[in-house]
Amino acid sequence: MVRQPHLTLIPVRFPTVRPGEKLAQLVYDCLKDDGLRLRRGDILAIASKIVSACEGRIVKLAGVRVTAQAKRLSVRWRLDERLAAVVVKEADEIIGGVNGFLLTVKNGILTPNAGVDLKNSPPGTATLWPTNPDRSASQLRRSLQLNFKTKIGVEIIDSHVTALRLGTVGLTIGLSGFIPIRDYRGVRDLFGRAVRVTQANVADDLAAAAHLLMGESSEHIGAVIIRGSVIELEPRCDGRLAKLSSTKCLIGSSLVRGRGGALSRN
């Protein structure tokens, strides 16, 4: 039996981030300004837009070249053709859409618009996901561990939508330093039956909790310290452990690919 601790969520406030800032130094300074220190076993959940801004992953829409495919998609799904062009370039696969959004696969994750977002991006720009979120999380974790002389985990989070549910929830797009899945297979349930398939995505559970504090507009909470979670630190772990191939996924395997001629493999 696992004893559940008291989970503590500590918001970390950030200024508006300028493109090209040093991520690790920025995070350290924000923690210091709030009088916060990281402890062993903490998970730092950081907003993907903070990471993206530091990595210069911001595109000026005025300079985007619009392809024929992007024009078709912009007409079919009623979105700005320059935004459509950026999504086409970023997406690994485009499955379909609704007015204003394309349903895409990016880095093995089903997400709207391949993570491309206009919200909280400077006027006239779109912000993209970090190029390699797992690598970014790993670099940040190593730097913070040196600064605070302790062992932690880091996850980079964004918001996404869930099928047939209204509103956004938190999603882990990259992580480093902890095991993201809790495996219940073989454990006995309340009636003594062995659990057969259930595995809990702890990383996304924590991302949802952090997202609740971060909000979606002008809160300026760019990161959340998650303290007291039942996680196992493991420096070799990254986000690949939380991904599932479409052939094994209930939703992914049921999707009709290329709705409206939208299929795109980059």
Topology at a glance:
Blueprint: E1 8-13, H1 23-33, E2 43-47, H2 48-54, E3 58-60, H3 68-77, H4 81-90, E4 93-98, E5 101-106, E6 109-112, E7 125-127, H5 133-148, E8 153-161, E9 168-178, E10 181-183, E11 199-201, H6 202-214, E12 221-227, E13 233-238
Parallel strand pairs: 2-8
Antiparallel strand pairs: 1-12, 2-12, 3-7, 4-5, 5-6, 8-9, 9-13, 10-11
Helix pairs in contact: 1-5, 3-4
How would you describe what is shown here?
The structure is a single chain. The chain is of the alpha+beta class. It has one domain: CofE-like (60s Ribosomal Protein L30, Chain: A). It has six helices and 13 strands. A hairpin with a 2-residue loop joins strand 5 and strand 6. Helix 1 packs across helix 5 and helix 3 packs across helix 4. The longest helix is centred in the middle third of the chain and has 16 residues. It is globular.
Q: Within the CATH hierarchy, at the fold level, what is the topology?
A: 60s Ribosomal Protein L30, Chain: A
Q: How much is the radius of gyration in Å? A: 19 Å
Strand content: 25-35%
* Sheet having the most strands: 6 strands, mixed
Number of strands: 13
Number of DSSP helical runs: 6
Basic shape: globular
| Proportion in helices | 25-40%
Contiguous low-pLDDT stretches (5 residues minimum) are 260-266
The tally of structural domains comes to 1
Structural class assignment: alpha+beta
> What is the fourth-level CATH superfamily?
CofE-like
User: How far is the first residue's CA from the last residue's CA?
Assistant: 46 Å
CATH architectural designation: 2-Layer Sandwich
Q: What's the CATH class, please?
A: Alpha Beta
Mean pLDDT: 94
Strand ordering within the main sheet: 1-12-2-8-9-13
- SSE arrangement, N to C: EHEHEHHEEEEHEEEEHEE
